[in-house]
Amino acid sequence: MTRTRQRFFLATFIFLSLAASLTATRAAAPPLPTSTPEAQGVESQAIVNFVNAFEKEVDAPHGVVILRHGNVIAKGWWAPYQAHRNHILYSLSKSFTSTAIGMLYDDGKLDIDAPVLSFFPDEAPENPSDNLKAMRVRDLLSMNSGHDKDTLGRVTLADERNWVKTFLSLPVEHQPGTFFRYNTGATYMCSAIVQKITGKSVLEFLTPRLFEPLGIEHPTWETDPRGINTGGWGLSITTEDIARFGQLYLQRGVWNGKRLISDAWVTLASAPQTPNGSNPESDWNQGYGFQFWRCRHNAFRGDGAFGQFCVVMPDLDMVVAINAGQGDMQKTLNLLYDNVLPGVHDAPLPANDAAARAMTDRLASLAHPTVEGDATSPTAATVNGKTYKLDDNNADVRSVTFTYEGTTRRVTLHTKHGDQPYDLGSGAWVTQTIDYHKLGIPAAATTAPQAVAASGAWTKPNELTARCWLIETPFRLEMTFTFSDDAKTLTMTTRLHPLNGKPTTIKGAVED
């Protein structure tokens, strides 16, 4: 990951310019049919092997749903992550934007060979270059817009609130259609085209035509400053919703007997429209379609940063949906192929109740550990009610207050934008809603309260450790507070995962 993208994701967390996500109880969507793995030709032990390897070798798995022949054969979530919660998809959002384009293509309302400039006469530069004039919708979809670099940062962080105008003002170094460069700004332009044609955002357009038929409830999507969905990122839905989307593509666009997208579009979107490398062992070198990646094993997928996957395997009639918070996405695919695929067979297998039950029990017990340590400490009484003023720091945290009496175990960060109180569970995760504050970052048009699961313990007599995980995102904030000088001074150490940056250390002292 480049430094630019690291900074973008870090800013996304710090400023919490994430999509509004609903934490209220969801009405249950119509359930997908379920089956034992063996009845669908899959060994239960193969799924257990994958889950065990995934948990051991990946930093933070969140959830997984596996479908075979249209049946859910396995699903599970690692506490504190939960089945009913939306999860931000990052670039997996691209495949949904592509689907909106596909529907307009099916309707005859959009020619994918139309010039991009034809949709935006008011935002076009005065003297567009030949390469810009040659850029087609097809080139946006296939990541062949002609830009030398991803335009994401230049578009979202520009002073200009009109992202379309900013995108069209950028140099187009290569002839469109001849140069592959993964380009999230190009997907944003697809979203803008959908809104230009329909007068609706991609979210509004897809709700009756895709989300409601699939039983995807309460999807949310970030927008630009003018209300255009970001397109290339920002969609939030559940893990099972991802699986439903993949199953639609596996079924060639048909859902419950009704065609939602054409077979022709499924072929175009999932076919290798452009080469993108030559490494036969890399799932990022198998070709790129229309906002879908080609994979090994003749599969295709949508994916998003930190381990969000929708893997469609037509040869096996299988879909795998995954949410996670980790950096090595190729490892996740390797673990899937190496563990599950050897256990997939063409015909149903003899019933194996013991194996199926063992798999179900394993999936039901998935959990990340809470902080190990003591529920209290002599230092707890000393720091209770005290506020520590912190030295200047890049996190914009001005002070921290500890409330540590009875059943209340709270750490409150005071920032220049507002307070962020974290109630820490002792040997358990406590789920709560934290209000974060919009800081005027151009990449965010909306922000919302965030669901946080927190756990804490005294890992030493003078050291309090807290895990505060934003459970609808990949981000996990770890904080350690070390008290010294009879608890008059404080060293606060923070680390943000899965960016795996260097820990940030901040000094502080009790306020007079």
Question: What does this protein structure show overall?
Answer:
- The protein is of the alpha+beta class and 512 residues long.
- The chain folds into 2 domains: 8-364, Beta-lactamase (3-Layer(aba) Sandwich), CATH 3.40.710.10; 378-510, Calycin beta-barrel core domain (Lipocalin), CATH 2.40.128.20.
- 27% of the residues lie in helices and 24% in strands.
- It contains 14 helices and 21 strands.
- Strands 15-14-13-12-21-20-19-18-17-16 form a 10-stranded antiparallel sheet. It has a 6-stranded antiparallel sheet with strand order 2-1-11-10-9-8, sandwiched between helices. Strands 3-5-4 form a 3-stranded antiparallel sheet.
- Strand 1 and strand 2 form a beta hairpin.
- Helix 2 runs antiparallel to helix 12 (329-339).
- It is globular and about 70 Å long.
- The chain starts with a helix and ends with a strand.
- The model is unreliable at 1-26 and 438-446 (pLDDT under 50).
